[in-house]
Amino acid sequence: MKLIDGKKISSDKRAEIKEKVAKIKQQTGKTPSLATILVGGDPASRVYIKSKIKACEDAGIKSFHYNLDENSPQEEIIALIKKLNENSEIDGILLQLPLPQNKDAQECLNTISPLKDVDGLHPFNAGLLNLSKSWNEIIEKNILVSCTPLGVVHILHKSGITIKGKTAVVIGRSNLVGKPLSMLLLANDATVIMTHSKTRNLKEICKSADIVVVAVGKARFVNKDFIKTGAAVIDVGINRTPEGLCGDVDFDAVKDMDIEITPVPGGVGPMTITMLLENTLKAFNNRKR
Ligand SMILES: NC(=O)C1=CN([C@@H]2O[C@H](COP(=O)(O)OP(=O)(O)OC[C@H]3O[C@@H](n4cnc5c(N)ncnc54)[C@H](OP(=O)(O)O)[C@@H]3O)[C@@H](O)[C@H]2O)C=CC1
Ligand SMILES: Nc1nc(=O)c2c([nH]1)NC[C@@H]1CN(c3ccc(C(=O)N[C@@H](CCC(=O)O)C(=O)O)cc3)C=[N+]21
Prior knowledge:
Family: Belongs to the tetrahydrofolate dehydrogenase/cyclohydrolase family.
Strand order of the largest sheet: 1-11-8-7-5-6
Domain Tetrahydrofolate dehydrogenase/cyclohydrolase catalytic: 4-119
Number of domains: 2
Strand content: 15-25%
Bound molecules: NADPH dihydro-nicotinamide-adenine-dinucleotide phosphate, 5,10-Methenyltetrahydrofolate
Binding site for NADP(+): 172-174, 238
Protein name: Bifunctional protein FolD
Shape: globular
InterPro entries: Aminoacid_DH-like_N_sf, NAD(P)-bd_dom_sf, THF_DH/CycHdrlase, THF_DH/CycHdrlase_cat_dom, THF_DH/CycHdrlase_CS, THF_DH/CycHdrlase_NAD-bd_dom
Radius of gyration: 19 Å
Low-confidence stretches: none
């Protein structure tokens, strides 16, 4: 087993971003900025938001945080987003998901200005990703794509894992992770198989893959039976268990195989936040303010 060090790849990229931010400040006198919105007080979401704010600070990106009450009506969330859309000082807006019950997340996301949509969840950006024909096009056009999928592809590139021509199986089809990730792998010329809870013969399908990305949200879901020798396994899952934080892969069960694998913690998680910083810079550049 070869461990893929997401933390190291992430900190290298953050150092690059920090330099870029310093240059922008020097050349324009402006500071790229991110607004984060948390509705309610879900403990896991609080932890993520805290790391996001800390990462912004470390990189020299200005951050503004808004914490709305659990019971705030949807109109209040939308009104805040509209206010942030109009605030020329703010480059990126991140609405932390999931929202408390009885709120329509997509409706809120639809009101974020596509230019400030650092999670790439506005239909306009999701559409641009869909229409893109290559990875180069996505990079050159500065398309805003969901941070976790971007992080996964960055990890693959930095680890020297070829994507072109490979069979990649993605487990999970959420709008935040599985679906945009499948589009990114496709743009990188993989043969992509998208799988989900209704997929039959999941083990066999995964066993045929050169690259397996798991984003299901079930602790130790993937075991030896899913993985072929020589495969790259990217574990997106974050599960809090009595024994601590763990991914969707049963790490102990596969660790003796001849594979490359990202650990949890220290794999995809840190990259997600790094890509949020990168997307904030993209938003700054796209707005040319
Ligand atoms: N490391 C990071 O930076 C991030 C980690 N995460 C973590 O990744 C995981 C997934 O997140 P997210 O995509 O938002 O989760 P969702 O709950 O939105 O999606 C889960 C997906 O898994 C599929 N699924 C559920 N059960 C099975 C099964 N038995 N077999 C195959 N597929 C199944 C679902 O299928 P169906 O569509 O049919 O219901 C669904 O598409 C979570 O653990 C989350 O915490 C999320 C974001 C960032
Ligand atoms: N609009 C929106 N955008 C998101 O990108 C988003 C979201 N909502 N909702 C929740 C998920 C989850 N997510 C993570 C971010 C960082 C780590 C992370 O840093 N993980 C560390 C461990 C952190 C810990 O100890 O909990 C690691 O894996 O090493 C994990 C998960 C972003 N998400």
